[in-house]
Amino acid sequence: MMEIEDHLFKKGESVSHLSCPKNTVKFAPGQPDTIIIHYTAGKSGESSAKYLCRKKVKASAHIVLDRSGHIYQLVPFDTVTWHAGKSSYEGRSGFNKFSIGIEIDNAGVLEKVGNKYKSWFGKTYPEEEVMQAVHRNESASRFWHTYTEVQIDKTIEMIEALMDRYPTITNILGHEEISKGRKQDPGPAFPLDKVRNGFLESREEELPMSDDYEGIVDVPRLNIREMPSGSADLAAAPLEGGTKLKVLQQHNGWLKVETKIEGWVAGQYVDIK
Predict the structure, then answer these.
(1) Which residues are catalytic?
(2) Of 43, 114, 218, 227, which alpha carbon lies 20 to 30 A from 242's?
(3) Is the pLDDT of residue 192 over 90?
(4) CA of residue 235 relative to chain centroid, distance
(5) Has this prediction a pTM greater than 0.85?
């Protein structure tokens, strides 16, 4: 199990700490609640990590994971980084304020040239490092740089450690989901749905039926649904900000709540008391 001390992964053979003093703003209370997975689209994990630490570069992340599984930590987990950019998901925008950014060393989209596959920065990759697949936001297949097995395993280890250390984290998203049409990472070569569903299902729990277990809607308007899914039918008109809720149950980041009726709401938008 990976250890987190002072909001940093413990330094060791597989973890290096870099200096990125441009990021100083701390997360608000109750944050972060989301992990965002990216690919670097860079030449190497080390070069991407050092690039993101540059003072004049208006991007950064908490973690860069190279293809060997080595972790570069740029910024402590209690500090906001600039990995999400213009972003929105289920009515909330500006995900830098809510999320930890994990950048995985991967070239992303590739172009086939002869029997090789070329990245945007000119490096070529052999066929065994390439897959052809349709992106979740597209309709035609393209060539994608694959992730190493150790990268996927190490990402799972990091998520487990982060969710144990920061119980406010209830969601795992790809950059492609919060910036549709603008970003494609981590792309179809990363098993995002499998990783996410595995964590959320393993952390499903029943909360006590108690009149004292309450929450307050923490966004201007919050959809209440018949089932714990963003595609489920609405149970009623959206709840207004500040609405008090009795929390009945938790499931995969969703809360079953009671106001005048019962229904399911996305847990990250409720301030639990």
Answers:
(1) 103
(2) 227
(3) yes
(4) 28
(5) no
User: The tokens of 10 are what?
Assistant: 């413990």
pLDDT in tens, 208-238: 545 557 888 888 888 898 877 666 778 889 9
Cβ pair 149, 192 in contact under 8 A: no
Specify the pLDDT at position 14.
94
State the Cα–Cα distance between residues 202 and 109, nearest whole angstrom: 32
The closest of 145, 132, 111, 134 to 43, measured between CA atoms, is 145
- Beta carbons within 8 Å of 184's beta carbon, 6+ residues apart: 108, 109, 135, 137, 175, 176
Q: What pLDDT is attached to residue 91?
A: 87
Report how far residue 252's alpha carbon sits from residue 199's, in angstroms, rounded to the nearest whole number: 9
Structure tokens at 260: 């005048």
What is the separation, in whole angstroms, between the first and last Cα of the chain?
Answer: 30
**3-state SS class at 263:** strand
- 128: its two tokens: 């065994």
